[in-house]
Specification:
The chain has 473 residues and is mostly helical. The chain has two domains: 47 residues, no CATH class; 421 residues, no CATH class. It has a two-stranded antiparallel ribbon. The longest helix has 36 residues. The mean pLDDT is 86.
Length: 473
């Protein structure tokens, strides 16, 4: 029950928002909408920071990116300014003597993130482009601080966990409807799939990655116990998401969903995390020992990405004629050459796209290669940090991932033992969503965007909140 004073302020805030909307419509000056929106944000920032964070989650899928080419600054509006403001407010509260939850501060995932941000901060000092690296590091802070450290506290309340998923899922569905509508005017062609999700998602790979992350929770919402009307609605959303995922033509996203399904089967068979990791390591070693034979096999594959879904899947292993695959290899080879030159500290966070051009080898160049630093980064959450932050950069990334999945599987075990079915399945969905992302991360990297950071750090916060709540109870 809200306090009377809080209810009064909510009524005044609502009246102000309605008045602002009315004035904007009557005068046809829609800039006036900024006034009530700004007032609402200010009130929430001072009184209900938790609600403001959840509002930001809901705004993220429909936020649009604006870029100033002169200063090479791109912001997703309004989500990133909101996350930046929330981070500043949290830091001010901490400086002014705010209390710190010791359980959250000392959690293994938190410590892994301290090392992650700490090493990134140190490599800003040694960066080839300090200003670029500083901006990259600050942006990473304003993603992690609110979306993990504050979100853990928000999701301690079990009633907010379903809400957290829905707040991103519904706007994502709206973005998917928009994308499919635009895509339909071009006959759902593969060529246009790369940009039809703009302005909400800058291109199809990040769009596909997020759709893949929400596939597990979409399935759960559709099959769990509910009324007939609710089942029709959730099943319709699931079908929408699956159609959008297929028509995104994002091969890495499709692959990541298959991997997540495999992990789910292993989990349901009660095969432990240690056994799963050991099997994965054996697979990696086996692939390495057979690499020459595999490469020769790949070179014989001439299937190129196309609208034929079967051929599009086959083209994943085409490293002889598929321009997308060859360009990715070009980016990786360039990153490895950069790493060889600076293995200790790398070239600096966020600098790869501005510095990799001289490290390209002429035999690796493709028809889509560029020297302008305007066509993406290293396309890997693992190789990118290796080039930009050296060996320690890759180690801290792997440390974060290990801490996340160790926590995740501990939570799954605990809730299965407690027979808490609802919490168990939400945890399963969070773990599988993260599996899709970090599998996709082998081929792409999106943690420098709000679109991917909200679910990645939000799912992580959910798992930590569940574990800490379990321990407290």
């Amino acid at each position: 029950m809200k306090k009377p004073d809080e209810q009064k302020w909510l009524w005044w805030l609502g009246a102000f928002l309605v008045a602002g909307l009315f004035a904007a419509v009557v005068t046809e000056n829609f800039a006036l909408l900024l006034l009530p929106f700004g007032a609402a944000v200010l009130w929430l920032a001072l009184n209900r920071l938790d609600v403001l964070l959840l509002v930001t989650v809901a705004l993220t899928p429909l936020s649009v990116t604006l870029k100033d080419e002169a200063f090479n600054v791109g912001l997703s509006i309004p989500s990133e300014p909101l996350l930046f403001g929330i981070t500043l407010l949290l830091l001010f509260r901490l400086i002014l003597g705010g209390k710190v939850n010791a359980a959250v501060a000392n959690h293994p995932v938190s410590w892994a993130l301290y090392f992650y941000l700490g090493w990134m901060g140190l490599t800003v000092l040694t960066s080839e482009l300090p200003l670029v690296s500083a901006k990259h590091w600050i942006a990473r802070i304003w993603f992690i601080v609110p979306l993990f450290f504050l979100m853990v506290h928000v999701l301690m309340d079990p009633k907010r966990r379903d809400l957290f998923f829905w707040l991103y899922y519904i706007p994502l569905s709206i973005a998917a409807i928009y994308t499919l509508t635009v895509h339909s005017t071009f006959g759902f062609s593969k060529e246009t799939s790369t940009w039809v999700s703009f302005p909400f998602y800058k291109e199809h790979t990040v769009y596909g990655a997020v759709l893949a992350m929400y596939t597990p929770i979409a399935f759960y919402f559709a099959i769990r116990r509910q009324s007939l009307l609710s089942r029709i609605g959730t099943t319709s959303l699931l079908l929408l998401l699956l159609v959008a995922l297929v028509l995104s033509y994002t091969r890495a996203a499709w692959l990541s969903v298959v991997v997540a399904a495999g992990v789910f089967v292993l989990h349901r068979l009660r095969i432990g995390l240690g056994t799963t990791v050991f099997a994965a390591l054996l697979l990696v070693v086996g692939l390495y020992l057979s690499s020459d034979q595999i490469v020769r096999s790949f070179e014989k594959n001439d299937a190129v990405s196309s609208e034929n879904l079967g051929q599009h899947v086959q083209s994943m292993s085409n490293v002889s004629t598929d321009a997308s695959n060859l360009e990715r290899l070009n980016r990786w080879n360039s990153a490895l050459r950069m790493f060889e030159e600076r293995p200790g500290v790398g070239w600096g966070p966020g600098t790869y796209q501005f510095l990799y051009a001289p490290f390209q080898n002429s035999r690796d160049l493709t028809i889509i290669s560029t020297n302008n630093g305007d066509n993406g980064n290293a396309h890997s959450e693992y190789i990118g940090p290796l080039a930009e932050q050296g060996i320690p950069g890759l180690i801290v990334v792997l440390l974060v991932i290990a801490a996340i999945f160790t926590t995740g599987f501990q939570v799954l075990t605990n809730y299965r033992l407690l027979s808490d079915e609802r919490s168990y399945w939400l945890a399963v969905c969070a773990v599988l969503g993260l599996v899709t992302y970090f599998t996709h991360g082998i081929l792409n990297n999106f943690l420098d965007t709000d679109k991917a950071s909200v679910p990645v750090w939000g799912f992580t916060a959910l798992l930590v909140a569940m574990q800490l709540r379990n321990l407290r109870e």
